[in-house]
Specification:
Elements lengths: L3 E2 L2 H21 L6 E7 L3 H16 L3 E7 L5 H13 L5 E4 L9 H6 L12 H9 L7 H12 L8 E5 L6 H10 L3 E5 L6 H6 L3 E4 L17 E4 L11 H4 L5 E2 L7 H19 L1
Parallel strand pairs: 1-9, 2-3, 2-4, 5-6, 5-7, 7-8, 8-9
Length: 278
């Protein structure tokens, strides 16, 4: 029997509807709306597209937005000054620094300039530590969205054999930490992993976040596994969907699986921050 599809578009829409209702109720009570600030350095077309999409979704849910676009020649010092000012602004609830930044900018220093209570994208080391400890705080947006999908489809993480393919600082690493904090036995694979197939074949839960179409053939998928394809390149995921759908129990489509939940989680965490600021 083909796998059941995990519908990220549906859950994201439900999440955004809930957010809009909560914001509407707060504004009717005389509160200011939540506000998310986006910071974009340079002219990368894909980054501009992502930021426009996030701003549109935020505004549609009733959030206020503040967009800060800086030139590609921006220095680390200027970017830090910009982020520190946003962190100190009481009208700002969440700060999103669009990744990646130009090579002359110290991205890690820029992330660390975001105040912990406004790190709604979960990119600071403080947020990572809290994820690893399971002590609350804001999750990285895409990993947090993946956990919400798993919960929506009643995937029990306690004791599950989980394999995460990809160790990027925005997705792979924080997701591995989150899964482990929720009781999974987690293996983190990367470009140096020997015999990737052997790891994938034993995974009860497989998450791939590399961005290399066809990296994982369908025949590698363990029968009955849950497959979360968080890779994306030219409209395709990392996993051979046609092959995997015949073996998995649950699987995310690409697109329409993980992607929609990233923005929904980002905005939901902005509203969480807003609750503590107003």
């Amino acid at each position: 029997m083909p796998a059941r599809l995990i519908d990220g578009t549906k859950l994201a829409a439900e999440t955004l509807d809930r957010i809009a209702e909560e914001v509407r109720a707060g504004v009717e009570q005389g509160l200011r709306p939540p506000c998310i600030a986006t910071v974009l350095v340079g002219g990368d077309p894909a980054s501009h597209t992502y930021v426009r999409m996030k701003v549109r979704r935020a505004q549609a849910a009733g959030l206020a937005t503040r967009r800060v676009d800086l030139p590609a020649t921006t220095t680390t010092e200027r970017l830090l000054t910009t982020i520190e000012a946003l962190s100190a602004d009481p009208e700002i609830d969440g700060i999103l620094l669009q990744h990646p930044v130009p090579p002359q900018v110290d991205e890690r220093a820029a992330f660390e300039a975001i105040a912990a209570d406004k790190d709604v994208d979960g990119v600071t080391l403080t947020s990572f530590a809290r994820m690893a400890e399971g002590s609350g705080g804001f999750s990285s947006a895409t990993p947090g969205g993946i956990l919400r999908l798993l919960a929506e489809y009643d995937v029990d993480l306690e004791g599950i054999e989980a394999v995460v393919v990809g160790q990027g600082p925005i997705l792979g690493r924080p997701l591995s930490a989150l899964l482990t904090a929720h009781g999974a036995t987690t293996t983190s694979c990367h470009v140096l992993t020997k015999d990737l197939r052997s790891h994938v074949e034993r995974a009860e839960l497989l998450v791939s976040a590399v961005g290399l179409p066809g990296l994982i053939p369908g025949e590698w998928i363990r029968p009955g596994a849950v497959v979360i394809d968080a890779g994306y390149s030219h409209g395709k995921g990392d996993v051979d969907f046609d092959g995997a759908v015949e073996r998995a129990a649950l699987i995310t489509p690409v697109p329409g699986g993980v992607g929609p939940m990233t923005i929904a989680t980002l905005l939901d965490q902005t509203v969480q921050a807003w609750r503590t600021h107003v």
